[in-house]
Amino acid sequence: MEIPDDLIDALTCANFVAALTGAGVSAESGIKTFRDPDGLWAKFNPMELASIDGFLSNPQRVWDWYQYRREVINNAKPNPGHYALAEMEKLFPQFTLITQNVDRLHQKAGSKKVIELHGNIIENHCFQCKRPFEGETALPDGEIPKCPSCGGLIRPSVVWFGELLPFDALTEAEQSATECNVFFSIGTSAEVYPAANLPLIAKRSGALVVEVNPNYTALTPYVDFKISETSAVALPAIVEEVKRKKGLL
Ligand code: OAD
User: Fold this and answer.
1) Scanning 5, 105, 113, 155, which has its CA 20 to 30 A from the CA of 70?
2) What domains lie within the chain, and their CATH numbers?
3) Alpha helix locations (H) across the chain?
4) Kindly report the CA angle at 196 between 205 and 75, in degrees rounded to 5?
5) DSSP secondary structure string, 184-233?
6) Residue 81: its pLDDT value, please?
7) Ligand 1 test: best mutation among 103, 188, 193, 215, most atoms within 8 Å of CB?
8) Nearest residue CA, atom 32 of ligand 1?
9) The whole model's pTM is what?
10) What pairing do the DSSP bridges indicate for beta strands 208-212 and 132-133?
């Protein structure tokens, strides 16, 4: 794998680096992506499993699917791509990590500050009154827990299709895209908005845009550097090169 010298030079001088991650970053931890040929949306219908209408028409089906995904995620470990992103937090004067992932593997790898655009699959809240729910979720017969305050159904704290992204998270992500010198788009198909807009905001604002993805995406024609490699291979190599150039190795 070739990492362009110009990219390493730009990163070595950069004051502010931002990175947007997607499901591809967790692929090497054994968590399936959504839109790859063997991805979740090839097998399951996102409108049935990840939308308000889907939840209302069959809450048990949605709950069971999330309980299954939680089991997979709870057993997964961060991979070298997650660890490299945690190192980047210390490597650049300013660094923002923005993720579409709900698996919390960035935090498990040691990233201190993570902007979660699509919520997370670990926490739950009441569908009706929105209060956070901290009670037991593994009920006998896979029953859906109910809100102790209003009796509403409990749901995972992920963002579903048709829902707005958390306002503060999106605002901070857009601000980082506007202000950074280098913007990484890593392991995302760049097809889901508004996240997919962030690299374009960065580009319009004068940042160098780098894509780390073994495949071609909707963003590829607009990037300054394309690293056609998996994130677990490319990101540690990039960190090592920048450290060498900064005299830290
Ligand atoms: P996608 O499944 O759409 O895209 C995953 C991307 O990762 C693809 O472009 C792959 O080529 C790439 N990829 C696969 N393996 C990789 C690896 N080892 N290293 C680097 N890249 C790899 O996933 P997202 O773009 O994250 O939304 O999808 C965005 C949103 O759509 C998700 O957050 C989810 C989904 O519906 C919600 O749940 C709200």
Assistant:
1) 113
2) 1-30+78-118+165-249 (3.40.50.1220), 32-75+120-158 (3.30.1600.10)
3) 5-13, 24-27, 40-43, 46-49, 52-57, 59-74, 80-91, 105-108, 167-179, 198-204, 231-245
4) 125
5) EEES--S-STTGGGHHHHHHHTT-EEEEE-SS--TTGGG-SEEE-S-HHH
6) 98
7) 188
8) 100
9) 0.97
10) unpaired
Spatial separation of the C-alpha atoms in residues 118 and 38, rounded to whole Å: 22
- Closest Cα to residue 180, out of 19, 16, 7, 8? 16
Q: What is the mean pLDDT for each group of 10 consecutive residues in the chain (249 residues)?
A: 95 98 98 95 94 96 95 97 98 98 98 98 97 91 93 97 96 98 98 97 98 98 98 98 95
Beta strand pairing call for 225-227 and 208-212: parallel
**Closest ligand 1 atom to Cα of 100:** 33
